[in-house]
Task: inverse folding
């Protein structure tokens, strides 16, 4: 197995690997037909790695490093340099072969080279991924719920994070607590008890981890 830097010619294999991997995961609804470009308004750099076996892309990892201004105001883990775990996927036929671990080990050395202090990871409930992130030192700092259903009301909101409680903190324009908000057709619910406000078709728990990156 070869762990190397992503190249533009890898895009087709990158898309296929991510699509197949996510199809059998809690992120089945994350569909991309091309590799997104780096948002240079908030990010300074992207770590882009692929795992290759017999000329085939079988794994991928992307981490985007925020610029200093965004890092210092980052809600989940403010620091001088924060990175966001954008993508991690392993082809279903090659899972269980420590490919994700190899990708992360290479990425960790690059995070250290860039003096990144915090790595934020957004995921959903699922034993395999969460076990990996915890193994890598991820500390759970926030949890919420993704609900497909119909609420009684959809108020305007302000977005925040209550790190003491480990959950999102939503407020209306009068600074009063809100139990949920709408994002891309899915309702984000802050507290498990507020799930009673919905006639739920499907529900997924969303988890946020933060990894403290040891400095070389």
Result:
């Amino acid at each position: 197995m070869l762990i190397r830097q992503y190249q533009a010619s890898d895009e087709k294999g990158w898309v296929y690997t991510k699509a197949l991997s996510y199809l059998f995961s809690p992120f089945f609804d994350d569909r991309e037909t091309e590799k997104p470009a780096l948002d240079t308004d908030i990010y300074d750099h992207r770590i882009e790695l692929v795992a290759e076996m017999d000329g085939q892309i079988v794994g991928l990892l992307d981490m985007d490093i925020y610029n200093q201004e965004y890092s210092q105001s980052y809600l989940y883990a403010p620091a001088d340099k924060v990175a966001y775990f954008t993508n991690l996927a392993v082809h279903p036929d090659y899972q269980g072969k420590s490919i994700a671990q190899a990708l992360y080990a290479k990425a960790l050395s690059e995070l250290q080279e860039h003096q990144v202090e915090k790595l934020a990871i957004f995921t959903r409930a699922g034993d395999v991924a969460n076990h990996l992130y915890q193994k890598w030192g991820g500390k759970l700092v926030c949890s919420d719920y993704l609900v497909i259903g119909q609420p009684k009301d959809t108020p305007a909101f302000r977005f925040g994070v209550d790190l003491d409680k480990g959950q999102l903190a939503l407020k209306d324009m009068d600074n009063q607590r809100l139990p949920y908000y709408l994002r891309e057709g899915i309702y984000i619910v802050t507290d498990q008890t507020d799930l009673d406000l919905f006639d739920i078709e499907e529900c997924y728990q969303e988890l946020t981890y933060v990894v403290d990156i040891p400095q070389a």
